[in-house]
Structures are given as C-alpha cells and as structure tokens.
Design goal:
The protein has 189 residues and is an all-alpha fold. It has nine helices and no strands.
Amino acid sequence: MPVPDESLLGKVVTQLSRPPSYASGTAKASILSIAAASYGWNSNGEEVTQPTGFDPEAARLFESVVEAAYLVANADGHFDEKEQTAFRHVVVNACQGLVVERQVSALLADLTDQLSEDGMDKRVEMVSRSIVREDQAREVLRIAALLAHVSGGVSEVERSVLSKLASALKVDSNAVDAAMKEAESAIAD
C-alpha cells in the first residue's frame, strides 16, 4: 500500500469526527467520537475502578465500531504496517485525544488475535451483538467505509465484508450503498 496522502487522511479524520449526513440536526459528533469518551477515559493505563461517569456500554460500542472497520481493512487477509499506522492515526485523531495511540495499538493487537482465533464470520457476528440500534449499524458501516478509503478505496473483498456486516446488523443492502456513497462524497470534497 502506498503511504496515504495527508489530505486524504485529514478528510477521513474530519468525517469520522462528524455525525453522518443523515443524522438528526441535534447530533454533534460521530458515534466513534462519542463512544471514545468512555473508552479513553482512563488513558493513563492504570487499572482502577472507573468513576460514575464511565459507561461500559459506550466503551464496548467503541471497540465494536473499531473492530468493524478493522475487519473491513483485513478483508484481503493483509493489513501491513503502513495500513496499521494510517488506521491508528485516523482513529486517534478522529477521537480528538480522547483515545491515545497506545490504546488503539493495544485494541488492534487484541483484534488481530481474535480474528486469527475466530475467523472473519465469527468476528462479524460478535460485532453485530454490540450494535443494537439501526442508526448505530448504519454509522458502523459509514465509519468502516471511510477507513477503507485510507488504503486506496474500497475493494470488492472489502465491500463483501461490509455486506456481511450489514446482514449481521440486520440493515438492508441499501445501507452499504449509502455508506459507500457518503464516504466517497466526503473523500471527493
């Protein structure tokens, strides 16, 4: 994979931190950014009991959103160091400092192990268990499509994983088309 263009990375970061175009007028950020606040709360790495403001469901949602994008990125069975570096950079920056690179690296290491142990179909099923609302499912597809563009666009095998995710998330096939269209539009701007 060639090194992604900085302007492309910037466009993806910007779109990942914004709500989707179809969100209600009250939405202020993407599901990734919102869930990152709970996931990244304890960024100093200490193992302590979280305060009352910690939301384990939001943290689980963050992991699922990142895993869905990770599964799409791994669709071809190859996720090299350049792709991983770009992926980490985009996620960390889209979360506006709420999640640090060390946390994303650790999450990616866990996801690598889980994908190796369970396989793609099982991991898609596991992601679908954490995404319970249709708006969340559509947002997961949008984020995965945006991150897929970092590696040079969405290939057929990546689109196939997006379709598996859509099916497991119980959204219609048009959801993948809508996610792709929004991602392509954001990249073209």
